[in-house]
Each structure stands twice: as C-alpha cells, then as structure tokens.
Amino acid sequence: MAASVGSHSRLGRYELCATLAEGGMATVNVAIVREGPGAGEVVAVKMIRGEFARSEEFAAMFLDEARIVAGLQHPNVLRYQELGHAEGHPFIAMELLYGQSLWTVWEACRARRVRLRYPMIARIGARVADGLHYAHDAADAAGRPLDIVHRDVNPSNIFLTYGGEVKVIDFGLAKAKNRASQTAAGIIKGKVAYMSPEQAVGGPVDRRTDVFALGTTLWELACDRRLFKHADDVETLRRVNAADVPDPTRVVDGFPRALWNILRRALARDPNERYRTAGAFARDLDVFARGASDGPDVPSLAEVMGALFPGDAERQRQWVAEVTASTRGVRAPLKPRSTFSGDDPGMPSASREAPRAVLGRVALVVVGAVLAAVLTALALR
Questions:
Q1: How far apart are CA 356 and CA 315, in angstroms?
Q2: Catalytic residue among 152, 284, 343, 344
Q3: Which residues contact 201 (CB under 8 A, 6 or more apart)?
Q4: Quick check: 381 pLDDT over 90?
Q5: What pTM, to 2 d.p., does this model score?
Q6: Could you list the residue range(s) of the whole structural domain that residue 179 is in?
Q7: Could you confirm whether 152 is annotated as catalytic?
C-alpha cells in the first residue's frame, strides 16, 4: 500500500487525498503533486487495486493505456501527465476534470424533459471526432503510426466540462501497435450497444469502428432513444451486426434531413461506405452546426452545463479544496486543469461517484417555471 501521511497517503511524489471513483480493477484519487514538475498542482491519480497489483496480466493491461496515450496532446483528449511505479503500485497521473459525462448530461436532460438542440449535439460530436482523429493519426517518435483505435466510444467516455470543453476519456480498451497485452482473435471488447458490426463479431477493427460508435452516440442523443440496445446482449449484438438504423426524420418531428445524411454515412454497415476518417466526420458536423444555428446569440456549452447542473461546478471545486487541505492545517494550492473526473476506472461516470456528503447528487427536478425558462432559452429543446 502507499505510505501513509496522516489521514492522506503518499505514492511517489503524489499525496493521495481522497478516492474519487472505484472500479473493478482500479481506483482514481484526487492528489497533490508534492515535488518535482508541477508541484502544488491538483491532479487525478489512477492506480491498480491492491488485489490486482501483483498480477503481471493486469499490470500490463493497466499500463498499456498510459503507453498508448502518453504522447497525445490535444484539447479534446484527456491529458495524461505521468506513468509511474511506487510502493509496488503502477499508477497514471492525469489532468483533473470538473464536469459530467455525456451520459449524465443526457440523463439530466431527460429528467427535465428537454433535449440538447441539434446544432449543440453536432458541435459536441465534432469535437469528439477531432480528438479521435488526432489519436487515430498519432505516431511514435520515429514517425511510425501507432494505429490507435479507441474501441469504446460511448456517452460514458465522452466528458463535458463546466467550462465547455469536450474530452475523449478512457483509452483502456484501445487497440494500438505498441500494446503489450494483445486481444486474442475473436475476443470482443467494448460496450456492446456501441460496437461496430465488425467489432461485434470479433473481426478486425480500424478507425472507422470509432466513427460508427460516435455515430451511434449522436443518433441516440439527437433522437432521445437507444439505437441497438436490448435487454438481452445477444439480441443487442444481432441488432448491431444488422446495423438497421431507423430514419429519424420519420420518427422524430422536425429532425433535420442534413443531420440524418451525416449520421447515416457514419452508421453504414459496410466500413467502406462510412467516413474514412473521424476528421471528415467532424467537418460535416461543423458545417451542419453552422448552418443550423439559431442566430448570433447561440449559447455556449458552458452555459448549457451551468443550466443543467446549477451550482455543481462550485460544489465540486469546494470539495476538492477541502480534501486537498494538508493534514497539518495548511491549505494546499488548488490549480486544477479543467474538470472533475480524471478518468473512468470501469464505472458509468467517475464524476457521479464523488462523495455525496459534500457534493450531493444534482437535483433532477425542474424548480418551477423560472428554471424551465432558462433551459428553454439555452441550447435545449
């Protein structure tokens, strides 16, 4: 275990202050950099749970994620800062994020009986596609392509910050040339309802698999319903493999034909008929968003997040400030990068697992007509 420091604990040059989230194989902690580069910065530290730390197989799977994305520097990809090993524990330090997963945002919208407007959905999708395209095109120091494929693009792995940033997180299932732990042929990895048809049958995958998964995510968000999901996973796999995508212009009043044309291409069953790159997908989404905007006063994503989660940004920052305070009573400097969840260690959304005693759950109730009017005035429909 990490060496104890008062009620906190040390892991190399990091002081672990509080558990942010726990998954089946790893935990994520809020931590302070106590020495070296970035001293005083507040970060998230992901580490293997004690029972798995001695397993070479689990260690290889865990460290693969950091090796794959260690060199990625893009505004729409979670920034990994350090891959390390201390006190017998492999760990990954990463930027601390304050915000919510796209899944939680969707849940909040549904609870309020509102939807994100189509241009906002397209803009979010375009930024995700930008991050994916950057990862897909990444190369090593010698210029050799890394051939990264995320393989697990879904609403839980898309993170929206209170400041309006869009981040792709959790490359734990990513495929890449430099991965130490390889997936055996025919083994399926990823969330079933967001797989591509070729992924669902254990076939070879490339960047177009991520295009399909993002297409599924955006179709669901725009239509406010699940696309392939069924109570039975076998039936879900059958639906994914068939890739029978309903025309939303026939099932959702006012659905833009231009947006459907974009999503239909992303969701083509044959990979050769999809967008060849996520970058091309992003460009078309941006063109649609600009053409479909409601005027010059279109609200920002930050404004939408503030309306959906009133007061949450300040509550999360206050909690971080409290848990990072030194056990000797000296206030630790608080310099978070941008948002509250460092990464998803295997849970629906790390941000949803913050201690309830301090943060509380966001109330999913519309408080009278005032809040309803605010939501309607923003990018919600």
A1: 11
A2: 152
A3: 241
A4: no
A5: 0.83
A6: 101-292
A7: yes
